[in-house]
Amino acid sequence: MESNLPVMLLVERLAGVGAALPADGPMPPEARLKLQNLAKELGFALETPLNTFNRLSILHSVVRAAINLDLFEYVIDAGPSGRFDFINPVFQKMPESLAKNDYRCPSAHQGPLQDAYNTELSGFEFIMEPRWADTLKDCNLFMEGRRQGSVSWLNFYPFGDRILAGATEDMDSALVVDVGGGLGHGLVEIQEKYPNTNGRLILQDLPNTIQQAGDGGGFFKPMAHDFFTSQPVKVMQAQKHISSDKYSMTGPTRNAE
After folding, report:
1. Nearest to 191, CA basis, from 178, 204, 180
2. Which of 238, 222, 233, 221 is nearest to 160 (CA)?
3. 229: alpha, beta or left, given left = phi > 0 and alpha = psi -120 to 50?
4. How far is 224 from 211, CA to CA, in rounded Å?
5. Under a CB-based contact definition with an 8 Å cutoff, are residues 216 and 203 in contact?
6. Residues contacting 236, CB < 8 A, separation 6+
7. Could you tell me if 233 and 222 are in contact, meaning their C-beta atoms sit under 8 angstroms apart?
8. pLDDT in tens, 102-129
9. Is 241 within 8 Å of 227 (Cβ atoms)?
10. Residues 126, 117: contact at Cβ < 8 Å?
11. How far apart are CA 86 and CA 208, in angstroms?
12. pLDDT 10s digits, 164-191
């Protein structure tokens, strides 16, 4: 279990230095320096691996060199290469693309990505091209790794009351269908926290991602599915999915058809 002791000690030290400051007049240089250093230490102590990556990834050229030297190997398995190689050209093209389209909201088939890569494919279709296979694999690993230091959604969503309380005893029906669920980490969390639930846990994502997820390790059933098409699982007790129209996340809902 993660200990909060280092953070607590730093907060106490900050409070001690602050309490010794004079109420009026200029701040002593020594006290200012000590507070700055303690504040930096506290910031580092509170960082998650994702926070560290985001802070360092601002230095894109340095990050690319670090990737080549495998310096990120023990911090996070993937992510920097996808941001540098795949996303950066889109960011660079964004001002020109937005101006060209009179700053209208980009559509799935017309936006900075299409202008950057001269394609009419949507983002999901484009990243399925063979040349981006390694990038998609890295992206999936990054999305799984970024959960380190994050609070599980099961800690605040009343899964037991809203989903399990209304679940049937039918083991053949789907308890949860996680659409766009990556490598299945969300379903693994459900299985680990509620090991005796009835119903199947089904993971749906792009074919390459499902191949990377493997057989589910006994936690879930993997299924390749394009969520821009109709849902093939017709009998389900809950569905956790991404809306293809509004690009918004919705939580599990019972009795989805």
Report:
1. 178
2. 238
3. beta
4. 8
5. yes
6. 173, 174, 175, 176, 177, 202, 256
7. no
8. 999 988 899 999 999 999 998 888 988 9
9. yes
10. yes
11. 17
12. 876 766 666 788 889 988 899 889 888 8
Single-letter amino acid code for the residue at 38 = L
Q: Measured between alpha carbons, how far is 14 from 38 in angstroms, rounded to an integer?
A: 6
Distance of CA 111 to the CA centre of its chain: 23
CB distance 215 to 222 below 8 Å: yes
In 16-101 the beta strands, taken as DSSP E runs, fall at: none
Which two three-digit tokens encode residue 82? 């996808």
Sort 206 into a burial class: Cβ within 10 Å, 0-12 / 13-18 / 19+. Answer: buried
**Spatial contact of 138 and 82, defined as CB atoms under 8 Å apart:** yes
